[in-house]
UniProtKB/TrEMBL annotation:
Its EC number is 2.7.2.3. It is an enzyme of class 2 (transferase). This is Phosphoglycerate kinase. Gene3D superfamilies: Phosphoglycerate kinase, N-terminal domain. SUPFAM superfamilies: Phosphoglycerate kinase. One of its GO terms (biological process) is gluconeogenesis. It comes from Methanospirillum purgamenti.
């Protein structure tokens, strides 16, 4: 696998007749009330691996969202969608490792595809643990009894040191799936040859990941500039002592990111001239979009998008960059009144010589716009993609390398 030659893939191992535990990342935008999957890009990207396992018994392990979020659901609809795309039945088991799951898998036939329940329903999967710690969990000890080999295809979750990602390779021979291989190869190529200046555009809601990446890429000279949009921008605006209004502060608190404001302040004190934070925004006032400077925001109105004047410094920066890494939307794009900033940023980013996109929501908008082919690479990972591009060795990759050595 290119620079990750220590990792084995499907071309190195014959899985015929084996029971494969396949970790994928089907975490997708869904309508939790209707139980409808709104975007199935990740399903389509994993199909190559699943189809390549037709001579094995395939047990799919995946998650949807996190505890506490509205879209933290059961995976019944996921199994149905996979079955439609695969063109064959996918048996959903509403169990993770109990006796029902164990028995069902034992009795299944070669060629069968079985999907287990949302693995994050098991509390241990939500812990940040090392491989050794993970191997001792009840979850991993029981899952390991159900398979002969572990295949990790979940690039989108490769940055999480969680039991199924780092623990299963400790206890079973583990290889990378085809999507994992493709992501690592494509992103390595882009990363190694990225022409300067390099700008990271960080938006959406995963503020802790984004702030960490911003600091890392600026400290290590990987990026020349960081452009903050979406909720990430709101954190930087608050760090600059703007009063961003109660609803935007409430959202930050609700997401558990209040402490990130102080961290953003310290990054700004070091890299003020490298971080662009648009100060002209769009708010919702009496149900309609109103644009204004952030210093004029009424206390009870949420910031939901970039303002048109705020877009100007963003476009200037993007157009002067030869490499653009885009992760996270610039606003509440699901509401058409607040999709303007996200759409304009995407159009500009698509023009860059090297353009890499991460993040499920961001990729979905790009697909909807029909802009897919204009980007150099659209990753199935959000946080995983940007962390990979910072040069960090992702826990999933390290675990696969270790497993290759151990089970050589
Ligand atoms: N200013 C904002 N206020 C509220 N939500 C926002 C704002 N900006 C972006 N968002 C939301 O961010 C979400 C996507 O964030 P995230 O999951 O981090 O993106 P990705 O999946 O692309 O990594 C979208 O649902 C979008 O509505
Ligand atoms: O969708 C994911 O991350 P992403 O939105 O950063 O791409 C992965 O499934 C990881 O999910 P997590 O960020 O809840 O650990």
């Amino acid at each position: 696998m290119g620079i990750y030659s220590k990792i084995k893939g499907l071309s190195d191992v014959d899985v015929s007749g084996k029971t494969v535990l396949l970790r994928v990342d089907f975490n997708s935008p869904i309508d939790p009330q209707a139980g409808v999957i709104l975007d199935d890009k990740r399903f389509r990207e994993h199909l190559y691996t699943i189809k390549a396992l037709d001579k094995a018994k395939t047990v799919i392990i995946t998650h949807q969202s996190r505890p506490g979020k509205k879209d933290f659901t059961s995976l019944y609809a996921h199994a149905q969608r996979l079955s439609e795309l695969l063109g064959k039945p996918v048996r959903f088991i509403d169990d993770i490792f109990g006796s029902y799951a164990q028995e069902f898998i034992k009795k299944a036939n070669i060629g069968d595809v079985i999907m287990l329940e949302n693995v994050r329903f098991n509390a241990e999967e939500n812990l940040k643990l090392s491989g050794e710690e993970s191997a001792k969990t009840v979850l991993i000890r029981n899952l390991a009894r159900m398979g002969d080999i572990f295949i990790n295809d979940a690039f989108g979750t490769a940055h999480r040191s969680q039991p199924t990602i780092v623990g299963l390779p400790e206890v079973l021979p583990a290889i990378a799936g085809l999507l994992m291989e493709r992501e690592v190869e494509n992103l390595s190529r882009v990363f190694q040859g990225a022409p300067r200046p390099v700008t990271f555009i960080l938006g959406g809601t995963k503020v802790d990941d984004s702030i960490d990446v911003a600091r890392h890429v600026l400290l290590n000279g990987i990026a020349d500039y960081v452009l903050a949009v979406g909720v990430v921008a709101n954190i930087f605006l608050a760090a600059k002592d703007f009063d961003i209004g109660k609803p935007s502060m409430d959202l930050i608190e609700q997401l558990g990111y209040t402490g990130q404001i102080e961290i953003a302040r310290s990054i700004l004190s070091q890299f003020n001239d490298k971080i662009v934070v648009p100060e002209h925004v769009a708010i919702k006032k009496d149900g309609v979009r109103v644009e204004m400077h952030v210093r004029d925001i009424p206390a009870d109105c949420p910031i939901l998008d970039l303002g048109s004047e705020g877009l100007i410094p963003c476009l200037d920066l993007i157009r002067s960059s030869r490499t653009v890494v885009l992760n996270g939307p610039a606003g509440l794009f699901e509401e058409s009144d607040y999709s303007f900033g996200t759409y304009e940023i995407i159009k500009a980013a698509a023009e860059a010589e090297f353009s890499v996109v991460g993040g499920g929501h961001t990729a979905a908008v790009i697909e909807k716009m029909g802009y897919d082919s204009r980007f150099t690479h659209i990753s199935t990972g959000g946080g995983a993609c940007i962390e990979f591009l910072t040069g960090k060795k992702l826990p999933a990759i390290a675990a696969l390398e270790k497993s290759s050595e151990r089970f050589a």
